[in-house]
Amino acid sequence: MQRAVGSSGAGATALGLPAMLRCEGLRKRYGDRLAVDGVSFSISERECYGLLGPNGAGKTTTISMLCGLTVRDEGEITVDGFEGGTLEAKAAIGYVPQDLALYPDLSAVENLTFFGQLYGLTGKELQARIGETLELVGLADRGKDRIGTYSGGMKRRANMAAGLLHRPKLLVLDEPTVGVDPQSRNAILETVGQLGIAVLYTTHYMEEAAKLCDRIGIIDDGQLIAEGTADALISAHGGLDKVHLSCDGADLAELNAACRQLDNIHGVHEVDGHLELTTDHGPAVLPAVVAVAARIGVDLTGVEVRSPNLEDVFLSLTGKELRD
Amino acid sequence: MIRVIALNELKRRLRDRSVLIGCLAAPLLMAAVLGLSFAGSNSPVAVRVGVSGASTQLLAAAVQASQLPPGVTIVSMPSEHAVKTGVADGLLDSGVAVLPGQMHLSSLLIPIVDPGATHTPGYDVVTKGTSQLGHEYAESVAAGISSVLYAQRAAHGIPVDPATVTITTQSVGHGGKINLNFFAPNIAVVFLFIGSGLGMRSLLMERAAGTLSRITAAPLRPTQIVLGKLLAIFVTGLATVFVIWAVTTFAFGANWGDPLGVLLMCVGATVAMCGIGVFLTSLAKTEQQAFGITLLVGLFLALLGGNLLPSGSLPDVFQVLALGTPNGWALVGFGRLDQLREPASSVVGPFLVLVVIALVAGGLAMTRVRKMVEP
C-alpha cells in the first residue's frame, strides 16, 4: 500500500507559531521488529497534536523517545530548543503515562509534592501549584485522600495532575482516557482543551482526536502515514458521504435504477437489504432521493446520511479498522 | 534530589509499615529472643573446659591469649582428679590438668613446637573422645597457658615458679553474656543483608508499577535516582543495627565493646551489606527473582562468614574463605570489640575493608542498576 507521509514534516509548524517540539526521522528497533520507522512531525506552541493509531502502532515508543525514556536508534528531537533527552528538554515536558504512575499508599497531595520536588518546586510555590492543579483536574476536595481509595477516573485525573504540576511547555498524554468512565473522560478532555500549551495526545479513539486536536498524525506499523487537520484528512482520504435507504417490501431494483438517474450520485449498491448511495454531499441530495422514492411509490422507512470520519481515513490508508 | 528520592522511599515504607516491621519489630523481636536466650541465664553453654593447676591470673591470661570463640566456658577445677571426673561424668566437655612440678617452660612448649613429641608435657589434656570441639578448645587453652608463660619469661626474664600455681574453684568464664555479645552483632549483620537486598527491590517494584518511568522522565540524572534509593536503604539498615545494639545493651546487658568502634563497624557493615545487597538485586529482572537471589546468597554468606556457626569451629579453609565475605569482616570487627575488648582503633582495618567491599559491589551494582533507570 502506498504510504502518504505527513506533509508538514519536521520543519513545518502549524498555527504560525514557533515549534515546541520537532522530531525528524525517529527510528527505534526492538530486535527484528522496527517499532518506529522514520517518524517526523512538529508541534507548535499551544497546538494540540493527536497521534492516532491502533494498539502497537508505535505511539508509546515514539513518546518514550520524546520524553527521554527510550534511546532512539536514529533521528533528531528538539524540545523547546533543547536536544531531546537532556535535562532541559525533560524539564519542559509534562509526561502523563498510559498506566497510572502514582503511589497508591500516598495521598494526591503527597504524590504531587514528590513529583513537584523532582522538577525543582519547593515551599509555598509547590503548595500553591498543587492546589491549582488539583482544582484544574477537579480533585481539590480529595487531595488528602490516598490514591488507592480513588475511582479509576479519579486516578487518571490525578495522574494527569502530576504531569501538569510544573507547568510544562509540552504536555505528553499517552492514551489518558483508556478504561475511564464517560464523566472522567469528559473532565480529562475538558482539562486538556483549556490548557493552552503544546500537547501531544496519543489515542486510538478517533472521536477524541477529532474533537481535541488541531492536527492529527496517523501512525501505523511504526510509520506516520498521514498528517493534517481532521477535516483535511477526511477530505483527502475519507471518501464520500453515504446515504442508506431502508424500505419495507419495496422493489429495491426499481429504486436503485431511479437513484442512478439523479445528479451528484456516484454509486448505488444494495447492502444487506438496504440501498447505499455514494455522493459528495449527502444532505444536499436527500430531498431529491425522497422525491424520487415517492414518485415511484416506494415507502422509505429509514434514511441515514453518514459522512466519512477518521475511521474511514484509517481504513482507506491502511486497509484495516482502527480498532484492529 | 537524592534526598527527595530517599525521603519519598522512607515515607512510603513507613506508610506501608515495612520499615516498622523490618527496622523495629523484627530486630526488637530478635534482640529479645537473643537476650532472653543468653543474657543472665545459667543455661549450659556449648563447650565447658575444666582446668586445674593454674592460677586464676594465669588462666585468665591464657584464655585471652588462646582467643577462644564465644560459647566456650572455662571452669577452674580443684584438682586433676576433679577434671578427669568432670569429663568422665559429662559435666565438662574436656579439661586441662596442669601437672604440679611440671611447669617448666621447656616441657610446656613441647606440644606446640613438636606436636608429635613423646616427651612428657607439663599438663594433661583430658578428653572423652566424643567432643571434637572440647578437645580442640582444651588444646587451645593449654597452648594459651604455654604462650603466656613464654611471654612472661621473655618479657621480664623471670623464670616461672611452679610454686605460684595455686588451685582455686573460681570460675573465670564469661557466662551467658559472651554469647549475647557475639550473637547480637552477628544477627544484626544478617538483618542488614536481608534488609538491603529487599530494600533495593523497590526499584524493581517501581518499574513494574510505572512510577519509575515518571521519575526518569523528570530532569534527573540516573545516578541521583539510584543514590536516593541507596540512601534510604542505608538509613533503614543503620536503624536496624542501632535497634539491636540498643535493645541488647540496655535491656539485656550485652556489651558490644567500645561505642566508637561499634559505631564505626555499624556504618561499615551497613555500607558493605548495602553494596552487596544492591548488587545482587541488580542481577534480578523481577521482584521475585531479587527476593530469591537475596535469600539464597544471604544464607550462603551467613554460613560462610560465620554468622550461623562460629568460623573458629569450621575447617581452616572456611576460616580463610570467611574473610572473603563482608559479613565475615564485620564479625572480625565486632569480635575485636566485644570478645577481645580491643579499642575502636582496632576496627579501622575491618572498617576499611568493608568500605572497599561496598565501593566495589556498589560500583558494579551502579552500572547495572543505572540501566534500569537510563533510557
Summary?
The complex is a heterodimer of chains A (324) and B (375). Helices cover 34% and strands 28% of the residues of chain A. Chain A has 324 residues and is α/β, with parallel strands linked by helices.
Write up what this structure looks like.
The complex is a heterodimer of chains A (324) and B (375). By secondary structure, chain A is an alpha/beta fold. Chain A folds into two domains: 19-236, 3-Layer(aba) Sandwich (Rossmann fold); 240-306, Alpha-Beta Plaits (2-Layer Sandwich). Chain A has eleven helices and 14 strands. Chain A has helices at 59-66, 87-92, 108-118, 123-136, 152-164, 182-193, 206-212, 230-237, 252-260, 282-295, 310-318, and strands at 19-30, 33-44, 48-52, 74-79, 82-83, 93-96, 170-174, 198-203, 215-220, 223-228, 241-247, 265-271, 274-279, 300-306. The longest helix of chain A is centred in the middle third of the chain and has 14 residues, at 123-136. Chain B folds into two domains: 2-39 and 176-373, no CATH class; 47-164, D-Maltodextrin-Binding Protein, domain 2, CATH 3.40.190. In chain B, 51% of the residues are buried. The model of chain B is unreliable at 41-45, 103-121 and 160-177 (pLDDT under 50). Classes of the chains: A alpha/beta (324), B mainly alpha (375). At the A-B interface, α2 and α3 of A face α1 and α9 of B.
